[in-house]
Amino acid sequence: MALLELGTLKASEIKKKSLSPFFNIFTSPLKKETLKFLKKTFLKRKVFPALPLILKGGYPDPCLSKNKNYFNIWMENYFDTYINIDIRKLYPRLNILRFQRFISMLSELSGTIINRSQVGRALDLSEVTIKDYLDIANQTFLWRQIPIFSKSKKKSLVKKPKGILRDSGLIHYLLDIKTKEHFLRSPKSGHIFESFVIEELIKGLNSKILGRWTYSYYRTKNGSEIDFILEGDFGLLPIEIKFSSSVENRSLIALHEFIKVHSLPFGVVINNSQQVQILSEKVIQIPVSFI
Question: Is residue 56 part of a domain?
Fold first, then answer.
């Protein structure tokens, strides 16, 4: 028996488009020739603005409504229902007010490595309580915990999990980000973009692949990091996620090193660029709207 998770809408579903051919690469083992396939596949494809989709998220009612006021009304009702009905019913002994403050803080931490002791100090809660709260948020499908890549050949890894709030629209509601301009000015924009891309990738793979696959992230104690790593029968694919529209070579050092150490055919950069571009012999750039 398989467990099917019904998540929020994928961006392509909101745009009424078919699943991106990008996900076809996961149906067979990844190889160097896959780069040429991606370059050719997206040669004449036009990008669409992703920011409006990032701002609204994927909950069907608010993201499809044309009423500008409806988004905040729906999100307020949804969050109130989640906290005061769903959580209260599932965990009757839980301190609801403290948990609500904790979820609000998670909106600021989405896309980052979670230091439970620091979060505990900020909320005047024990590290054990923070761990319990994270488990509750994860088990109720509001939060997604992303484990550390466990097959690394390096020992000096950060052991703390990373996490994201699953819906970017909910993040914006909790952070009170209401406009494109506010989003672009926010110091959280890069992490929110990363959260959005990770969920888009997971939704796409869930739609395309029936077999088992896993995701993780990689970070060493000296700061070398890979934002997202996919692994399955197709092999191992490291992915860097950049909010910018262009990529500097120095920002790819960790990706190149990871590819070399693990003898991989290539890695991917997903960003706000306008076209697919081969950045180096083993790194390809994919615009966010192409996933």
Answer: yes
Domain that holds residue 46: 11-290
Residue 4 lies in a domain: no
Euclidean distance between CA atoms 134 and 206, whole angstroms: 23
Residue 3: pLDDT over 60? no
Asked whether residue 5 is domain-assigned, the answer is no
For residue 61, being part of any structural domain is answered with: yes
Reading across the β-sheet that carries 213-219, which strands appear in turn? 213-219, 225-232, 235-241, 267-271, 283-287, 277-280
Distances (CA, A) of 92 to 84, 89, 128: 10, 6, 18
| Cα angle for residues 166, 171, 173 (degrees, 5° grid) | 135
Number of domains in the chain: 1
Query: Is residue 112 helix, strand or coil?
Result: strand
Residue 7: helix, strand or coil by DSSP?
coil
Tell me the percentage of the chain whose pLDDT exceeds 90. 84
Residue 223, C-beta contacts closer than 8 angstroms, at least 6 positions apart:
none
Integer Cα distance of 149 and 229 in angstroms:
8
Tokens of 143: 């939060």
177 close to 56: Cβ distance less than 8 angstroms: no
Q: How far apart are CA 146 and CA 27, in angstroms?
A: 23
Cα 87 to the center of its chain, rounded Å: 24
Compute, in degrees rounded to 10, the torsion defined by CA atoms 146, 148, 152, 155.
170
Radius of gyration of the chain (CA): 19
pLDDT digits (tens, 9 = 90+) for 200-249: 999 999 999 767 899 999 998 888 899 999 999 999 999 999 999 998 88
Contact of 206 with 7, CB cutoff 8 Å: yes
Which tokens sit at 189?
Answer: 């924009």
